[in-house]
Amino acid sequence: MSACEFESLEKSLETHLPEAELREVKRILFGKETRKLDLPSCAVDAASERDFELKGYGFEAAQEQLRPPRRIRVGLIQHRIVLPTDAPILDQINAMHNRVGEMVEVAAMCGVNIICFQETWTMPFAFCTREKHPWTEFAESAEEGNTTRFCQELAKKYNMVVVSPILEREELHDTLWNTAVVISNSGNVLGKSRKNHIPRVGDFNESTYYMEGDTGHTVFQTQFGKIAVNICYGRHHPLNWFMYSMNGAEIIFNPSATVGALSEPMWPIEARNAAIANHCFTCAINRVGTEHFKSEFTSGDGKKAHHDFGHFYGSSYVAAPDGSRTPGLSRTSDGLLVVEMDLNLNRQISDKWSFKMTGRYAEYAEKLTKAVTHDFKPNIVKE
Amino acid sequence: MSACEFESLEKSLETHLPEAELREVKRILFGKETRKLDLPSCAVDAASERDFELKGYGFEAAQEQLRPPRRIRVGLIQHRIVLPTDAPILDQINAMHNRVGEMVEVAAMCGVNIICFQETWTMPFAFCTREKHPWTEFAESAEEGNTTRFCQELAKKYNMVVVSPILEREELHDTLWNTAVVISNSGNVLGKSRKNHIPRVGDFNESTYYMEGDTGHTVFQTQFGKIAVNICYGRHHPLNWFMYSMNGAEIIFNPSATVGALSEPMWPIEARNAAIANHCFTCAINRVGTEHFKSEFTSGDGKKAHHDFGHFYGSSYVAAPDGSRTPGLSRTSDGLLVVEMDLNLNRQISDKWSFKMTGRYAEYAEKLTKAVTHDFKPNIVKE
């Protein structure tokens, strides 16, 4: 069985483990069990016709006396590219709009309030090729590009907040950025969040295309909660998640593009750790499939030139502040994950565990300020 | 099956999954497979006679041209208390010395260079009772207590660095601390590291007994590598791991005491995330079993008074900077985990992933300094 054939960890466990052991294994691996959502049959049928996986789970919170529940539904979409990477660019973009559009329609049937797409969702993840052309042509204005207009229509039509991660061209200076556009359910562009940390690893030195983001750790107050976007490689940096949380994020999305050989064992760890450490929900989204490029390229690993760099393993999931998580979407197919959460859980868990109050942040601020100077003397004791 | 009967996740998977699926499941759950160590038969026999689990795994690193391998062996010990909690205190301590002493002897047979015991290993984890007496009588001087002298003997006898987490009494001021004493293989006390973050959660407000540590993020340069100790609840704080790493730690130990209902799904996440994020090895150690106390106590959860607060689930493990980890020790029995690691792996993974160079730490120092002021204005965008 090769890594791009294996459908999912969850399915394997459910198929083979006896009931009593499965319960213990799932408790240890996934925490408190998430409730399966009863999704409308029209949505189930549409997902089946349109050939994508549809799964729904709910996280519970306790009933409080003074606050009503703040129960919302989040949708995560993972998908393959639709057309070959050498098809005309506009055709590729339009095909992706159509595909995601029909998935968002199902999300609307499921009552989703906030939806997030995968990193640079309108294009193949071509940054391994190191070619500037034609890939930079996929870049669009965050405020006025076709993709943003498309998402604004979706937002208005379905009364849904849309998080749309694209390759951004800032037209004034012709600079490129890896940017998530956040569109309110009113259809207005609420703002944008640029990728804060840029990888130089494996096939990717993405600073060939775009540099570290300058939008800081903006949090967007939507009708359905305070959200933030930590794009892809930023999930490896605990301080990045932390600063979004310090600005009040209740849900942090992590739209990503990452392949099995590189990162798969880290995938279930990092977003989930961030949910635990910051008393918030995190949503990890990864694309699916293998993308073939016409020109061959090398990976800086001594191996032969090749036309693809491996299998994007999907496995999108949502993690909760209490350490629990949903099962993941498939490793191999397009999918929509619908997750109901009561945002009151964040404060309930914070009141229980108190990481923000026991964090000694003022001391870390002082220590970090000293540690970043070039002449920092680390505290090492020798015999 | 109750949570204190279930032996281990790993065993359940290995018993029930077909070979090909097991390989994929283990790859996703544990990363690159660790090599099983071929431990000497005298050690295997002694562990069996002395009724504890003995497991050994090795992490590999690439061969370099300019640096020889820095291959060392680390030992983690998890155990139950030996005598009932109402036995005379000195008897309890001596019984624990004997038990751990016979386990360390086996570690020496296995070539262990650095050994770490569980949090406050000489005593029951009695801080749930909120009684000061008799528990504070377990406290000892870090520099001159009997337990430190016992560990110094072990260190010299076996040429082993010993990390000994105890309840410390600082005699000058009669203050108590939760402290790990680090003893060089020469037998000298190299220093101590006090618990930086103190829980106020569930059964435990440990500040009833001891306050936040004042020893900062000291790293100890030993003959076998640079080590640090992040005690128990400190594992929930990513900044804590991070500052040990900023001071150069190559291995961070996390001696703990934590029970299933509270934290088990978080256990495999946090130390492992720290190993990934900080390009170092982390060693998570938890005690085993259920501890009964003579006086009943309540847990602040509306439930009836009781005499124990649940099952310590063991499951000690080691995580590597490449995202891989060893299987865990049993959830139910005493155990010694022997792990061989080549410390060169840390720099190799750092050179690959470059988190320290892409971390933008200077910007976080500035942001955190602002964020900790009481009049901090979070960056929240509204429509």
TrEMBL record, chains A, B:
Pfam families: CN_hydrolase. GO terms for biological process: beta-alanine biosynthetic process via 3-ureidopropionate. Pathway: Amino-acid biosynthesis; beta-alanine biosynthesis. It is found in: Cytoplasm. Gene3D superfamilies: Carbon-nitrogen hydrolase (3.60.110.10). One of its GO terms (molecular function) is beta-ureidopropionase activity. InterPro entries: Aliph_Amidase/BUP (IPR050345), C-N_Hydrolase (IPR003010), C-N_Hydrolase_sf (IPR036526). PROSITE patterns: CN_HYDROLASE. GO terms for cellular component: cytoplasm. Catalyzes a late step in pyrimidine degradation. Converts N-carbamoyl-beta-alanine (3-ureidopropanoate) into beta-alanine, ammonia and carbon dioxide. Likewise, converts N-carbamoyl-beta-aminoisobutyrate (3-ureidoisobutyrate) into beta-aminoisobutyrate, ammonia and carbon dioxide. Belongs to the carbon-nitrogen hydrolase superfamily. BUP family. Homodimer, homotetramer, homooctamer; can also form higher homooligomers. This is Beta-ureidopropionase. It comes from Sparus aurata (Gilthead sea bream).
